[in-house]
Write a structure and sequence with these properties.
- With 194 residues, the chain is mainly β.
- The protein is built from 1 helix and 14 strands.
- The chain has a 4-stranded antiparallel sheet with strand order 4-5-6-7, with no helix packed on it. The chain has a 4-stranded antiparallel sheet with strand order 11-10-13-14, with no helix packed on it.
- A hairpin with a 6-residue loop joins strand 6 and strand 7.
């Protein structure tokens, strides 16, 4: 997930942990441990990249638990009714019909053409992210001056998102909408006809 490896390790109840490694930098971080998070005996790990959750099975509690990718917001999904769960697979809002894009994660950042276009006075702007990103989405006139900020440096999760844009206070004409992430800038034109 996002070029990151997650794993469970430990030999005794007090040294169990779930860690991650950035595969580009080889930096390792411990995200869940026995002392701070009550981790007893993690056996299987499943990742939900769409909602940025990590799931693990705990053989001591006979439970399945969940936290976000930073190790916060721990939730018990099922406890006591499972007989030593070991493996976890996560499928999120997907029915797998082929090997293409099996994870449901977009392969790249994409800014789609607004719809409808031309429009009066509202249109929808959609974009896809292949990583959780801080993004800014803005609208500019043909000279490049910013006339609207639709998203201002806010974090959006992996996946497809749609934003409604109401241009009721703008004049007819061609405008440019711009998606900025930490890694790239994408632009397209839209046409407002009143």
């Amino acid at each position: 997930v996002n070029n990151t490896l997650y794993w469970a390790s430990g030999f005794q109840a007090d040294d169990m942990m779930i860690s991650r490694m950035d595969l580009e930098t080889n930096n390792v971080a411990e995200i869940l441990n026995a002392e701070d998070h009550g981790l007893l005996s993690p056996l299987g790990i499943g990742l939900d990249p769409q909602n940025e959750h990590i799931y693990w099975s705990d053989s001591e509690k006979n439970s399945i638990q969940r936290a976000d990718f930073t190790g916060e917001s721990i939730t018990t999904i099922s406890e006591g009714s499972l007989d030593t769960p070991r493996d976890i697979d996560i499928f999120v809002n997907e029915i797998i019909t082929s090997s293409e894009n099996i994870s449901g994660i977009p392969s790249k950042i994409e800014l789609e053409q607004n719809y409808p276009n031309p429009f009066n006075p509202s249109t929808n702007i959609s974009f896809q992210l292949n990583e959780s990103e801080l993004i800014t989405l803005s609208v500019h006139d043909i000279l490049g001056r910013r006339v609207k900020t639709l998203i201002n440096n806010s974090r959006y999760a992996i996946g497809r998102h749609t934003i409604s844009f109401n241009a009721g206070d703008l004049s007819s004409g061609v405008y440019i909408y711009r998606l900025e992430t930490g890694r790239s800038v994408h632009t397209k034109k839209l046409t407002l006809i009143k």
